[in-house]
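haha ok so turns out i had the wrong file open the whole time. this is the CORRECT one, sorry everyone. sequence first:
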Amino acid sequence: QVQLVESGGRLVQAGGSLRLSCAASGRTFSSYAMGWFRQAPGKEREFVATINWSGATTYYGDSVKGRFTISRDNAKNTLYLQMNSLKPEDTAVYYCSASGGVGSSIRGSYDYWGQGTQVTVSS
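then structure:
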């Protein structure tokens, strides 16, 4: 069992930056691939980024590539999402997730989810 708690979401102006954090507790954090997803009102949950257990491999959704960076600190049991050049269309609830297998862009490959943190980007 892994418990995930996101933080760092807030209101920010377009063009600004935010860093989201996801604190993990429970089973060994470093054994999990991790991911970030987001969900805007009335839309499906969308893949944002994933990172392997060591942090050596990352993969991004097309809509955030070049603007967002996923990273992890296994010593602190924490996952991060650095978001730069934010746009109004980035407004969503952001969720972190943990996969006991190989992380991917597919929601079903993740075993555990946090409650989400709201990010709102004003124009």
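The two ends are 40 Å apart (CA to CA).
again sry for the mixup
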